């Protein structure tokens, strides 16, 4: 058996084309251009590349995009202040803080400062909670991209054993929640898992997000499994490699994502999708708020103010 290689670049282009259509509709029907702001702190070369790629994708989809580069010496207070400004900026519908942040800045604190309705990465505890209860608004982009790839291959996880290697907040945990929502039986492995190979060999769907090049080899994969390799690792020769040993897994899996060209492009596509959703949501809320304000009330103006206040509270708690 030689696995089919899933073309993440091609699938991502389809998602991006659909986003572009939604952007065009928003602009022509509502006069709104989706806006994404990206904050980068420090000089991490990989982060710079990711941010540049996101910027290019935004431009191609017709977004308004802004990038804020902070020196690595910036204080947490400065970054928080900038996030607050972007929260209040009506041209910006999505805010992304590129991780990792320098050690003296708390990623948790910065992510919590982002308004949940602009949290297009889906990392704010409010959005994490919505995903946990099975009612996601903004699904973290990488796991969302993995699900879109599985769908593009008509891989239905229902009733299958999905094994995820890695339990980060960014990939592993939300991945587990999404697969559980789709009725897979989910196992999550990590660095303390005693016999990793025994677990991975049970997987019908194997998602690997470890950050260790070529760690999962063919003999750790069940014959016919679908293998999704999230890892992106720079090898000493400058080439990129995933967490799966691609050549050896090819002989066991039925399908496999390559690195590069697998999950990576999907992550960016899902970021665009989340940002368009945020812009559409904000347009709908503005419209509803407008009609709530204009609705005549028998009690007069005072009651109108109460209705507006109630609406704002409702909006706050909807996210
Ligand atoms: P983290 O370092 O946050 O998490 C790595 C996870 O792997 C942890 O849960 C860790 O376990 C687990 N792990 C580490 N070593 C082992 C081991 N020997 N056996 C089993 N589990 C192990 O990484 P991320 O989740 O952020 O990223 C994972 C990979 O995915 C990286 O290569 C990253 O570059 C890539 N990535 C790719 C994206 C894309 O768009 N394609 C987006 C985001 C990430 P423990 O919790 O016990 O420490």
What does this entry look like structurally?
This protein is α/β, with parallel strands linked by helices and 319 residues long. It has two domains: 31-136, Leucine Dehydrogenase, chain A, domain 1 (Rossmann fold), CATH 3.40.50.10860; 141-264, 3-Layer(aba) Sandwich (Rossmann fold), CATH 3.40.50.720. 47% of the residues lie in helices and 14% in strands. The chain is built from eleven helices and eleven strands. The strands form three sheets. It has a six-stranded parallel beta sheet. Strand 2 (35-41), helix 2 (45-61) and strand 3 (64-70) form a beta-alpha-beta unit. Helix 6 packs across helix 10. The longest helix has 32 residues, at 263-294. The radius of gyration is 21 Å and the shape is globular. The termini are far apart. Residues 295-319 have low confidence and may be disordered. The protein binds NADPH dihydro-nicotinamide-adenine-dinucleotide phosphate.
Features:
319 residues, alpha/beta, Rossmann fold, 6-stranded parallel sheet, 11 strands, 47% helix, 14% strand, globular, disordered C terminus, binds NADPH dihydro-nicotinamide-adenine-dinucleotide phosphate
Write the layout of secondary structure elements.
Layout: E1 4-5, H1 8-30, E2 35-41, H2 45-61, E3 64-70, H3 76-88, E4 94-97, H4 107-113, H5 125-132, H6 141-152, E5 161-165, H7 172-181, E6 185-189, H8 196-200, E7 205-208, E8 226-229, E9 233-234, E10 240-241, H9 246-250, E11 255-256, H10 263-294, H11 301-318
Helix pairs in contact: 1-10, 2-10, 6-7, 6-10, 10-11
